[in-house]
Amino acid sequence: MLLWMRKGCVFALFFVLGGCAYLEPLVQDFNIISVSEERQLGQQFAEQISKEMVLVEDPQFTGPVRRIGSQLVAGLRHRDFDYHFYVVKDASPNAFTIPGGSIYVHTGLFKLVGDDSELAGVLGHEIGHAYERHPAKAMSRSYGADFLTNLLLGSKNNNQIRSAALQIAKGGILTRYSREEELVADEVGYHLIRRAGYPGDGLVRFLKKLQSQGSGLSILSTHPPTPERVARLEALQRQDQNIPAGDQRRLI
Ligand code: ZN
């Protein structure tokens, strides 16, 4: 898609980003990266991350992340990507998703998650970002078509790929999600954890724990645990409290 849109998109992107607040939903859904381009970017970014960060293969960490991750992915209605789950050595309690369905959990997250249902809550939220293609949308909002085209052209642009991959991994300002995207990721994640048979309050318990830890945690800036998120998740729980776990029929 990008290779034929090229410069026209730069102007379109400029126009859309320069609009008023009422354009926000349009800005939010703006995506100039096709699914196949997103898969390719995902492979390039995953390669860079494997060079720049320490991937952990200790089954104490990777075991629950991959087991719960694949249970949740099984509940998706459709899959644009092959989802992959990794653990990276980083003491801060965080998780992030790169384009193309690869999800990374910091070892530091394990200091905060109390049980499988809290970990399922965090993973469900990240799968929600991937499923809704939020990483590609964030990049479309932040980078011009020429820059994205250069990334897709590959090996000559290693520095650009490296810098874009690290922006995503470190939650840089250019790849922040919108408030609405955080809420959508919560909702998709909520339905996945219920379909997989986990109790629905895992993410809420985790968010409340984060709130009680105060500021200074990186996850607070990349996925802020706002009172609005907690209230929306609690409303979802109230809506389906009479439906047995694992019997979630709502379409996502
Ligand atoms: Zn998030």
What does this entry look like structurally?
The chain is of the alpha+beta class and 252 residues long. The protein has one domain. It contains 12 helices and 4 strands, in the order αααβαβββαααααααα. The protein has helices at 2-17, 24-29, 35-52, 59-73, 116-131, 134-142, 145-153, 158-169, 179-195, 202-213, 218-222, 227-239, and strands spanning 55-56, 84-88, 95-98, 102-106. The protein has a 4-stranded mixed sheet with strand order 1-2-4-3, sandwiched between helices. A hairpin with a 3-residue loop joins β3 and β4. α4 (59-73) crosses α5, α5 (116-131) packs across α9 and α5 (116-131) crosses α10 (202-213). The longest helix is centred in the first third of the chain and has 18 residues, at 35-52. The model is unreliable at 6-24 (pLDDT under 50). The site of zinc ion (ZN) has 6 residues, from α5 and α9. Zinc ion (ZN) binds at residues 125, 129, 177, 182, 185, 223.
Overview features:
4-stranded mixed sheet, 4 strands, 252 residues, alpha+beta, globular, binds zinc ion, 12 helices
Q: How do the SSEs run, as a string of H and E?
A: HHHEHEEEHHHHHHHH
Our estimate of the beta-strand percent is 5-15%
Strand order of the largest sheet: 1-2-4-3
Main sheet specs:
4 strands, mixed
Number of helices, where a helix is a run of at least 4 consecutive DSSP H or I residues: 12
